[in-house]
Write a structure and sequence with these properties.
33% strand; alpha+beta; four-stranded antiparallel beta sheet; ten-stranded mixed beta sheet; 16 strands
Length: 278
Amino acid sequence: MEGMHVIHFFWKDLSPHLILHPVVADGLSLSHPKPSLIQVHRLSLGEVWNYTVLPGRWCVGRLEEESYLPCPEGRVLKEFHICPRCRASLGKPTLREIFEPEEGCEGEICEKPHVVYLAFYGEKMKVGMTPEERLLKRAVEQGADAVGVLLHLENRREARAEEKRISKELRVPQALPAREILAGMSRGFKREVIEERYRRVLEAVGGEEELTILRGYPLERLSSAPSPWKGKRIHGRVLGAKGRYIIVQMGGPKAINTGKLLGRVLVEGSTKPSLEEF
């Protein structure tokens, strides 16, 4: 069965893109008629999707700036979209370096200057940390409506420690539930409200930065909050995208978490009906 393997989802400025690789699926086996071929699809408002998502999740392989190599083992995965072998070959940070650098961080990312930031989703806020050079890109990837720097740190270990401290002492969450992020897509926010909340946290940590408002996400005005998409069929008009979510009109706005699409295979039209969900 011919389909498209979802390799990557990314933002370029405020334009969302999917990278797809043509494959042939036979049960839990994937073949690659054109191993090096990839397609970069820029999402457009109003385009119509009609896909079945096949059961199974396969390693996305090795995508670099100028080349693509499918996973040599064709690994079927349960949780993540890339196997340890392919991840290591790309020199990507380990999960420990990403989430708990204090326990050991030796990669390139570890010694880069970092910032601890406050991000708003609607009027809800969370604290985070990222390499200084990636602040605005990270905010867009997460679908933030506004972001501001709280502290500048010399490396990732120090940034993670300060992120935890601010979260604990000021009771600012390090993550928000998906339902709150999705609710913020239809509610909007009052600028004076989030600026005041940012000012209070900024004063508490001794920072001096301005809050940056992020506008221009390609998303139609929503009359209600999107609900999380589940199932194996995607059939509807694309209403836009924000952060990790693609919003599709399917009996109401549905939010497709692109993290759950990575590694999946999309087949145009419908296949045999299935009630299985993932």
